[in-house]
């Protein structure tokens, strides 16, 4: 009898059978359990698993919710209450759930659950497709109203969010009852990688009695292990109370309770036989199949008893040598590297072989179909721009990925598709779309756009200047709107030289001749002045722009057991008792409890930042960390977590490394590497200076390293990244006095030069370091960091704070300029600096760089790359003039890599 992959869910009945593990329940961090169709903002704890299920409201903005017919919402159908309600999607070809805050590049088990339950009273079970992001997952064929369906896929998630989409294929309205996400270690299910996913066909626990279903907490990953329904008469169950060792846990991790039961046959002349059918569909007419059989010996064999067997599939031998199970130690046979194709029914037969006196044995098995997950989502920058445009104009039926798959691209978009690079948006046609309000400046972020048609809407305001920076723009149609002001000269110029077709007729208030136009009244700056007038640190935006980074980790898992080939592609693991090393957690997410342990109950406060208090702590492996805990009082910013995909990739040796984060119920925290020597500010002026001031060469290295960190933010990131709060207290030093820039996670990615959406931007930064154009007009560019960094350079030279409290508060810039104007360099140099070891020319040079950086006009300031070059030259000068100087005792010579400023990020951003 063939097993069906979508089988009766006996979740409710499972309660009775679940054997609870010893001790506390396993870790559920990263588990996401969604009850689709539950009224918004409600949640409950599931009786069987004690897992918390929440409403799907936060994960989708489409569809309508329904209760299933009362005839099916009863324990006789199922006790899984998440199936008692559904969300259905009568409108639109594709509707999606977006789950934020997943860890990019890590492996997840994703499970969708279905019970039609005649929720619409039509008694018409539908057929529809499921997509995982932009890749086809499987077709869901609902056979009946009481059918309890499960679709499960194991896949690597590329982004910091995951989308699951239901696609209407014209055979009924798609619906869904539940959606579960469970993180998996990357070493498990090795065939699931960045380009290949595993769709579950079947997962069985042989020899389990009647209705016993094993899942969380017995299975720490909350996989569901089903008993075989209607076992044939030849099978007999055996079991043991003893725990089964799992030496192959890093590769195959089957719960001991599953392995403790098995089937054999009455005697050795009777084989174990069963079969599996594949599920061909319109995308995969001949799906590739991967099978895994899990075996262990459960009986302590007497003297001359032997149990060994061969496995055949459709009569063809699978195991070359007769296989002998090991007593109470899990082993696995599988064809992970070579999915089988060309067969729709796989007949398995386990036959006692050679001198076996005992029948074969089988404890558990899994069967998967492989799918491709190689299709790429649209370019992230295009996605964020078009998403902002969608939100501004409230386009309802733009769902899922904008360009992919091709057949489901958003209405009005044209995209370009290339092999192995993400699709790009090349055209937006929103003519006759009833748009009102002004033209979003996010259009200027669609860097590859060629055609932009906004004709015949009700758009008002002026044409954003930034549109003229779109270098590929060939057609711009603004006909028939209510636009005013003048046409940006850049657009006119391109229209005149023929590179742009510009249409703007039927805009009564728009004039094409800029001199005769009355400019629209400029927004008064008085409101902005309020922000600027706030005298101290302006940290308001911190909560809003709370963005977390996860340091992209290398897979260091060394515990992977080298497979031992048994034959015909069947592999076996762990016979040699290779006591697998502990799995490395892929997702460095901490619970609040972990943090309490790490910080010894939040005992030692290191300081207080804009985000909240910072605690001292140690990880289990001894790593010294700083834990920044967010004030519980600020509730904003929750949804901004882990949203900027690009930010997760930022790491550089001169940026403070984020080790992990915590996102518990109420607690938000960042775990950083600990920087034992504190801040540059404290080193220059702090109480704990301990009498010893930094030498000039140490100062020079510190600013050079910080500049390299900032250069990386400015140049290596896409979109570009502006720190916005560069200051000496955000430059941290480690035990080797190596400098790393901190707190860049609390600002936001830089969208575009001309973004005039002042209302969404607030001043982040510190008085004394704010560039004039940022303080007065909120203009954001890398140049504001250059300005602030110039202030830091002056601090390093003079040892003075950014605002010097003379009788009248003066900025360090004014103070230095006045003295240098008189040629008095000695008069500005920090009196605490050991004066025997510096080259005055070098100090002049740095002062010169600092003054250029703090130029009023942003255009006159150098780039961070220029600054790095200058500082490097200066350091070289310093080092050649003082060869053999060993006085800088705790400085490591290797801390400056002569090639670092460019090479580090080109390799790290691969
Ligand atoms: C579903 O049933 C519950 C009570 O059983 C009720 O409170 C809720 O309003 C119903 N929802 C819908 C969408 O009908
Ligand atoms: C999306 O909405 C637009 C405008 O309301 C409509 O013209 C278009 O047909 C819709 N597309 C789909 C796929 O529903
Ligand atoms: C994923 O596995 C398949 C099958 O083993 C292989 O062909 C493919 O190259 C792998 N992809 C990646 C990104 O490693
Ligand atoms: C095994 O069982 C079959 C059927 O019950 C029987 O015919 C056969 O003699 C048995 N063989 C042995 C070796 O006991
Ligand atoms: C598989 O077994 C069934 C009977 O259980 C048989 O009808 C079928 O022909 C077998 N298929 C193959 C390919 O051996
Ligand atoms: C099992 O495999 C061995 C080694 O290939 C072979 O000699 C034996 O005949 C096989 N037994 C069965 C029952 O297929
Ligand atoms: C945009 O779509 C309209 C029809 O809705 C069409 O007339 C127009 O030519 C399209 N614009 C471009 C630039 O393709
Ligand atoms: C366009 O907007 C104006 C001002 O908001 C409004 O009075 C007018 O009715 C709108 N016209 C259309 C066609 O939507």
Automatic annotation (TrEMBL):
- Which sequence ranges are marked TM in the entry? 528-550
Any GO molecular function = protein serine/threonine kinase activity
Q: Which UniProt keywords apply?
A: ATP-binding, Kinase, Leucine-rich repeat, Membrane, Nucleotide-binding, Phosphoprotein, Receptor, Repeat, Serine/threonine-protein kinase, Signal, Transferase, Transmembrane, Transmembrane helix
The GO cellular component terms are: membrane
Listed InterPro entries: Kinase-like_dom_sf, Leu-rich_rpt, LRR_dom_sf, Malectin-like_Carb-bd_dom, Prot_kinase_dom, Ser-Thr/Tyr_kinase_cat_dom, Ser/Thr_kinase_AS
Which EC numbers characterise this protein's activity in its record? 2.7.11.1
Q: Which reaction does it catalyse?
A: L-seryl-[protein] + ATP = O-phospho-L-seryl-[protein] + ADP + H(+); L-threonyl-[protein] + ATP = O-phospho-L-threonyl-[protein] + ADP + H(+)
- Leader sequence range is 1-21
Top enzyme class, one word, equals transferase
Asked whether the keyword Signal is assigned, the reply is yes
Cellular localization per UniProt: Membrane
This protein's membrane topology, according to the annotation, is: Single-pass membrane protein
Enumerate the spans annotated as Protein kinase domain.
600-875
| Region called Disordered, residue ranges | 885-910
Q: Which domain of life is it from?
A: Eukaryota
> Can the keyword tRNA-binding be found in this entry's annotation?
no
Q: What is this protein called?
A: non-specific serine/threonine protein kinase
Q: What is the lineage of its organism?
A: Eukaryota, Viridiplantae, Streptophyta, Embryophyta, Tracheophyta
């Amino acid at each position: 009898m063939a097993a069906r992959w979508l089988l009766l869910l006996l979740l409710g009945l499972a309660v009775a059978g679940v054997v609870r593990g010893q001790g506390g329940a396993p870790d559920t961090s990263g588990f996401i359990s969604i009850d689709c169709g539950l009224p918004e903002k409600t949640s409950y704890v599931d009786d069987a698993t004690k897992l918390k299920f929440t409403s799907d409201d936060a994960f989708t903005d489409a569809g309508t919710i329904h209760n299933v017919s009362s005839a099916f919402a009863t324990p006789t159908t199922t006790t899984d209450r998440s199936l008692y309600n559904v969300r259905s999607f009568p409108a639109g070809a594709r509707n999606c759930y977006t789950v934020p805050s997943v860890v990019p590049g890590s492996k997840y088990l994703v499970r969708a659950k279905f019970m039609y339950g005649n929720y619409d009273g039509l008694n018409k079970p539908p057929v529809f497709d499921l997509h995982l992001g932009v890749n086809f997952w499987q077709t869901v064929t609902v056979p009946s109203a009481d059918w309890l369906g499960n679709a499960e896929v194991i896949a690597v998630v590329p982004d910091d969010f995951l989308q699951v989409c239901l696609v209407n294929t014209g055979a009924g309205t798609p619906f869904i009852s539940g959606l579960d996400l469970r993180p998996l270690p990357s070493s498990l299910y090795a065939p699931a990688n960045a380009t290949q996913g595993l769709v579950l066909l079947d997962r069985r626990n042989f020899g389990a009695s009647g209705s016993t279903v094993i899942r969380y907490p017995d299975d720490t990953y909350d996989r569901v292990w089903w008993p075989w329904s209607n076992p044939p008469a030849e099978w007999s169950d055996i079991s043991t109370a003893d725990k089964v060792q799992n030496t192959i846990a890093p590769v195959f991790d089957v719960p001991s309770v599953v392995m403790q039961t098995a089937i054999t046959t009455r005697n050795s002349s009777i084989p174990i036989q069963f079969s599996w059918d594949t599920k061909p569909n319109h995308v995969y007419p001949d799906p590739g199949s991967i099978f895994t059989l899990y075996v262990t010996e459960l009986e302590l064999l007497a003297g001359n008893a032997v149990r060994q067997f061969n496995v055949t599939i459709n009569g063809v031998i699978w195991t070359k040598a007769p296989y002998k199970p090991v007593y109470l130690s899990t082993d696995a046979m599988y064809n992970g590297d070579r999915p089988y194709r060309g067969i729709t029914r796989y007949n398995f037969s386990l036959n006692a072989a050679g001198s076996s006196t005992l029948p074969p044995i089988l404890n558990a098995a899994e069967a998967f179909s492989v799918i491709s997950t190689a299709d790429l989502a649209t370019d992230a920058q295009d996605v964020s721009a078009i998403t902002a445009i969608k939100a501004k104009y409230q386009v309802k039926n733009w769902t899922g990925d904008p360009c992919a798959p091709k057949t489901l691209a958003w209405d009005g978009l044209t995209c370009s598709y290339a092999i192995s690079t993400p699709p790009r948006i090349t055209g937006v046609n929103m003519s006759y779309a009833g748009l009102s309000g002004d033209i979003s400046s996010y259009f200027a972020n669609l860097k590859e756009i060629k055609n932009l048609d906004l004709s015949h809407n009700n758009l008002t305001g002026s044409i954003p200047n930034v549109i003229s920076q779109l270098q590929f723009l060939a057609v711009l149609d603004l006909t028939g709107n209510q636009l005013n002001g003048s046409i940006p000269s850049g657009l006119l110029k391109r229209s005149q030289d023929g590179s742009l077709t510009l249409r703007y007729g039927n805009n009564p208030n728009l004039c094409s001749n800029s001199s005769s136009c009355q400019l629209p009244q400029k927004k008064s700056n008085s409101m902005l002045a309020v922000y600027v007038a706030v005298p101290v640190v302006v940290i308001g935006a911190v909560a809003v722009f709370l963005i977390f980074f996860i340091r992209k980790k290398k897979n260091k898992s060394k515990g992977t057991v080298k497979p031992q080939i048994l034959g015909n592609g069947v592999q076996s693991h762990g016979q040699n008792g290779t006591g697998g090393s502990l799995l490395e957690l892929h997702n460095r997410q901490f619970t609040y409890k972990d943090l309490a342990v790490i910080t010894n109950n939040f005992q030692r406060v290191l300081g207080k930042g804009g985000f909240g208090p910072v605690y001292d702590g140690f990880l289990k492996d001894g790593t010294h960390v700083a834990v920044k805990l967010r004030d519980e009082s600020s509730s904003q910013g929750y949804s901004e977590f882990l949203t900027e995909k690009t930010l997760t990739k930022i790491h550089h040796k001169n940026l403070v490394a984020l080790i992990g984060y915590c996102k518990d119920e109420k607690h938000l925290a960042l775990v950083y590497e600990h920087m034992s020597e504190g801040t540059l500010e404290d080193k220059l002026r702090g109480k704990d200076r301990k009498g010893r001031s930094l030498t000039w060469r140490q100062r020079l290295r510190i600013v050079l390293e910080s500049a390299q960190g900032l250069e990386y933010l400015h140049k290596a990131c896409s979109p570009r990244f502006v720190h916005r709060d560069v200051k000496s207290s955000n430059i941290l030093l480690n035990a080797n006095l190596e400098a790393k820039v901190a707190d860049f996670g609390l600002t936001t990615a830089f969208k575009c030069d001309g973004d005039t959406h002042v209302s969404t931007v607030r001043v982040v930064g510190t008085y004394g370091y704010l560039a004039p154009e940022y303080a007065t007009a909120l203009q954001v560019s890398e140049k504001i960091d250059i300005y602030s960094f110039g202030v830091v350079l002056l601090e390093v030279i003079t040892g003075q704070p950014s605002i010097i409290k003379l009788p009248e508060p003066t900025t360090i810039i004014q103070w230095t300029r006045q003295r240098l104007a008189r040629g008095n360099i000695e008069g500005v140099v920090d009196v605490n600096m050991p004066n025997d070891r510096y080259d005055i020319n070098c100090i002049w040079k740095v002062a010169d760089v600092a003054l250029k950086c703090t130029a009023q006009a942003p255009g006159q300031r150098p780039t961070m790359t220029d600054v790095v070059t200058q500082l490097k030259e200066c350091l070289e000068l310093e080092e050649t003039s003082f060869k053999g100087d060993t006085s800088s005792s705790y400085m490591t010579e290797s801390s400056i890599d002569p090639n670092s400023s460019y090479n580090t990020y080109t390799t790290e951003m691969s």
